[in-house]
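Researcher: We plan to redesign the surface later, but first we want a full-length starting point. Tokens attached.
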């Protein structure tokens, strides 16, 4: 009887989803070490056509890393909201803003495309609520009104101070680093670097890093990185979408090896196929790091 019970238990374990890693502890990764096998695996998953992809991966336990076109500037789409969130934390720590500050939507902040749960010009929202909405449901108006309050140039300076060489947003000033006819831009490597700070508790300080992680874990748009992984694996991530842009960048808390992965795709003709590519890269990376 005992061996029957043991066999049944083993069968249940084999059928159960993998146990997730601890998302409550920070991980300070060692120096990145290029993994040619992982890079080749990612390269093989990329489509011959359907846009330009940039990919960056960092294993937080071992430092194994892979970069494919990771330094090319690509449209950030809603990934720019991670830069806004970081600057919000910096200014909050400095006493320049609080979560209870009331922000009023201006005509410039308002967008009639994409998600808007805040309202039309004249609507008000607390800064902390705006930060939550822009991450969890990717609310564009919430992001715009918070970015305006923080100062667009300040957000760019914070990105530069972090060493994010390929990440800038429109300021609409004379010396704007982003030409008027171009989109906010970033790179897969920059997103990896920012997420590395969050995962290691160094995004402003451990308390705000924890807050950022909690918001990213609550992201409600889960059709890319999370959808490519086994059920139950936590992913702290942020997506980005435009007409020809499909992005996702996050921290995957695998049972054996938590890792950062950023996949950006621009000039895509088939958005659904691009999202499928991101899912395939996420799963291939997960299986590779968990098994080796």
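Model: Full-length starting sequence:
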């Amino acid at each position: 009887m005992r061996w029957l019970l043991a066999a049944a238990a083993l069968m249940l374990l084999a059928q159960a989803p993998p146990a997730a890693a601890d998302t409550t502890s920070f991980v300070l990764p060692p120096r990145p070490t290029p993994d040619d096998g992982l890079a080749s695996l990612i390269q093989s998953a990329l489509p011959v056509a359907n846009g330009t992809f940039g990919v960056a991966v960092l294993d937080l336990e071992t430092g194994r890393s892979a970069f494919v076109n990771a330094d090319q500037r690509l449209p950030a789409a809603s990934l720019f909201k991670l830069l806004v969130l970081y600057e919000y934390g910096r200014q909050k720590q400095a006493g320049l803003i609080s979560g209870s500050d009331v922000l009023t939507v201006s005509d410039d902040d308002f967008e009639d495309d994409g998600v808007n749960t805040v309202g039309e010009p004249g609507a008000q929202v607390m800064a902390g609520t705006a930060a939550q909405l822009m991450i969890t449901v990717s609310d564009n108006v919430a992001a715009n009104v918070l970015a305006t309050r923080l100062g667009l140039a300040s957000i760019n300076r914070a990105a530069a101070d972090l060493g994010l060489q390929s990440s800038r947003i429109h300021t609409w000033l004379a010396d704007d680093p982003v030409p008027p006819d171009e989109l906010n831009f970033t790179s897969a490597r920059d997103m990896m670097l920012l997420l590395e700070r969050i995962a290691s508790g160094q995004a402003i300080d451990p308390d705000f890093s924890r807050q950022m992680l909690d918001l990213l874990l609550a992201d409600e748009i889960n059709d890319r990185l999370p959808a490519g992984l086994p059920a139950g694996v936590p992913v702290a991530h942020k997506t980005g979408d435009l007409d020809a842009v499909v992005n996702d960048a996050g921290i995957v808390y695998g049972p054996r090896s938590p890792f950062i992965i950023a996949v950006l795709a621009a000039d895509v003709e088939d958005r659904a196929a691009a999202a499928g590519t991101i899912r395939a890269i996420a799963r291939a990376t997960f299986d590779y790091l968990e098994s080796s």
